Amino acid sequence: MKSLQPIEIVGGGLAGLSLGLALRQQDIPVTLFEAGSYPRHRVCGEFITGLGEDTITRLGLAPFLNTALTHREVAWFNHNRVMQIQPLPQPALGLSRHQLDAQLADAFVTSGGTLHAQTRITGNAKPPGRLFASGRRRGNSDWLGLKIHAYDLPLERDLELHLGDHCYVGLTRVDRTGCVNICGLFRGQKISATRADLLLTYLRVSGLAGLAERITNATLDPDSFCAVAAVKFDRQVAPKGRMQLGDACAMIPPFTGNGMAMAFQSAECAIDPILAYARGETDWDTAGNRLHSALHNRFRRRLSSANLLHPFLTSAASQRLLSVLSRARLLPLQPLYSVLH
Fold first, then answer.
1. CA-CA distance, 272 to 183, in Å (whole number)?
2. In which order are the strands placed within the sheet that holds 7-10?
3. Is the peptide bond before 128 cis (omega within 30 degrees of 0)?
4. CA distance 113 to 27
5. Are 150 and 179 a contacting pair, CB within 8 Å?
6. pLDDT band of 70, cuts 50, 70, 90
7. What is the pLDDT of residue 339?
8. Predicted structure pTM score
9. Is 194 exposed, middle or buried (0-12, 13-18, 19+ CB in 10 A)?
10. pLDDT, tens digit (0-9, with 9 covering 90-100), for 18-61
11. What is the per-residue pLDDT for 14?
12. 3-state secondary structure (DSSP) of residue 224
C-alpha cells in the first residue's frame, strides 16, 4: 500500500482545525502549528449564518455545534433608535469561539493529529504539503475591531445590529448562561483610553452613547476583551501561489455574519484537493490550483457584494436612507442575504 503524504497546517483557527479533523478522518497524517494557545478569545461576531448541512456533515462539525443557540430575529438600530425588527432569512447559530476553538483542538489531538500550540512558523517557506490558515492578510486599513462578553444585558432580539458614526456593533447571546458577545467595527478615530474603557469610549464618540450606557449597566468579563487593528476586507480570494484558508484566504465584512461560515467552507473546499495530493494522485501545484479555483468560485460573488454594501452601513447619508427604507418595509433582506451567503 502506498504511503500517505503528510500535511502541515499553519494556523489553528476554525479553518485549520476543521480541515485537520476532516483529514484525520481519512487517516492522513496532519501536523498543525498554532501561534497562540487554547482556549483564547478572538475578535469575532460569534454568529454563524449560511453554514449548510452539507458542510457540517463533510467536516464532522455536528458535535461541536449541537449546543449553539438558534437565532431567528434581528433588530436594526440607527444611533440608538430602532429602525426595524425582522426575521432572519434563515436561522443562525450563536456560540462562543472561546469554547469552540478549544473543543476542535481537543478533538484534533484525540483523532491522532499533532498539535504544536504557541509555535509560530516564520518566513515565506511554502514546501509541498503545507497550507496556511494563519489569519488575515496584512494590509493598510484604519478599521479597528473590538470584542467583549457581557452578562445581565437584555437584548431587544436575538441579534442587535447598531449603526453609528463610521462604525457598527453586533450583540448576540452565545450560550445558555446569558453571555452576550459584543463585537464592534470602528473606523478613522484614534482614541486614548484604558483597556477596560476602550470599547465604551469608542461607542460614545461614535454616537452610540445609549448603547454604551446599557453595556455599562451590565457585568463585563474583562478576560474576554480583545482587539485587532488594521482590519482589511478583501474583494477576492488570495492569489495563486500559496495554499490559504479562512481569513488568510479572504476577509468578509462582519455585518454579513458569514465570517465563521466562510472559514469552515474554505476548509471544505480544501478536502478533495489535499486528499488527492496526500494519496499521491496529484502533485502539490495541481492541488493548489484546484483549491484556488474552488475558493474563487464559492466566494467571489459574496465578497464583491459585501464590499459594495459595506459603505452603506457606515456613512451618515446611507444610514439615513436605510432608516427610510426600513420604516417603509422596503429593506430587501432576503435578496441581500442570498448574495452574501
1. 34
2. 114-116, 30-33, 7-10, 130-132
3. no
4. 9
5. yes
6. very high
7. 65
8. 0.93
9. exposed
10. 999 999 999 999 999 999 999 989 999 999 999 999 999 999 99
11. 96
12. strand
Cell of 73: 430575529
- 319/73: higher pLDDT: 73
Q: Locate 273 and state its grid cell.
A: 484537493
Q: Give me the pLDDT at residue 341, please.
A: 64
Instruction: Give the angle 271-274-277 at the CA atoms, nearest 5°.
Output: 150
DSSP state of 330: -
The phi-psi region of residue 327 (left if phi > 0; otherwise alpha if psi is between -120 and 50; otherwise beta) is alpha
C-alpha to C-alpha distances, 265 to 50, 98, 278, 321, nearest whole angstrom:
10, 20, 20, 33
The secondary structure of the chain in percent helix, strand, coil, rounded to multiples of 5, reads 40, 25, 40
User: What residue type is 56 in one-letter code?
Assistant: I
Sign of the four-CA dihedral 91, 92, 94, 99: positive
Give the residue among 134, 157, 136 at the shortest CA–CA distance from 17: 134
Specify the pairing of strand 81-94 against strand 47-48. antiparallel
CA pair distance 58, 80, nearest whole angstrom: 41
Q: What is the mean pLDDT of residues 277-283?
A: 96
Cell numbers describing residue 102: 478549544
Q: Please give the grid coordinates belonging to residue 225.
A: 476583551
The Cα-based distances of 339 to 250, 299, 303, 306, 307 in angstroms read 16, 10, 9, 8, 12
| Cell representation of residue 75 | 433588530
237: its cell numbers: 480570494
Chain segment 200-215, per-residue pLDDT in tens? 999 999 999 999 999 9
Residue with cell 444585558: 153
All 3 cell numbers of residue 247?
Answer: 481569513
- Using alpha carbons, select from 41, 34, 44 the residue that is nearest to residue 12: 34
Q: Is the pLDDT of residue 144 over 70?
A: yes
Distance between CA atoms of 201 and 41, rounded to whole angstroms?
Answer: 21
Mean pLDDT of the chain: 90
